[in-house]
Amino acid sequence: ELDNDLKPLKHYYLGDPKEIEKAIKAVKDQSKKMP
Q1: Rounded to an integer, what distance in angstroms lies between the CA atom of residue 28 and that of residue 35?
Q2: What is the pLDDT of residue 20?
Q3: Structural domain total, the chain
Q4: 5-24 core/surface letters (b: 16 or more CB in 10 A; e: else)
Q5: What pLDDT, in 10s, does the model give residues 1-35?
Q6: Which residues are CB-contacts of 6 (< 8 A; sequence separation ≥ 6)?
Q7: Helix, strand or coil for residue 20?
Q8: Tell me, what's the pLDDT at 25?
Q9: Are the CB atoms for 2 and 23 separated by under 8 Å?
């Protein structure tokens, strides 16, 4: 669960940390491409 700045509200993750890191990076990259 993320706040408006895409920072995790809770400091734990379910699943593989590397996969989650990739997903977070993908979301951040998508937001950079928006005008």
Answers
A1: 14
A2: 81
A3: 1
A4: eeeeeeeeeeeeeeeeeeee
A5: 667 787 766 666 567 778 888 988 998 888 888 77
A6: 24, 27, 28, 31
A7: helix
A8: 92
A9: no
Tell me which residue range forms the domain holding 22.
1-35
CA distances from 28 to 2, 7, 21 (A): 12, 11, 11
Dihedral over Cα of 11, 15, 16, 19: its sign: negative
Would you state the structure tokens that stand for residue 20, as one six-digit string? 């989650």
- How many whole angstroms separate alpha carbon 11 and alpha carbon 9? 7
CA 9 to chain centre: 11
pTM, full prediction:
0.46
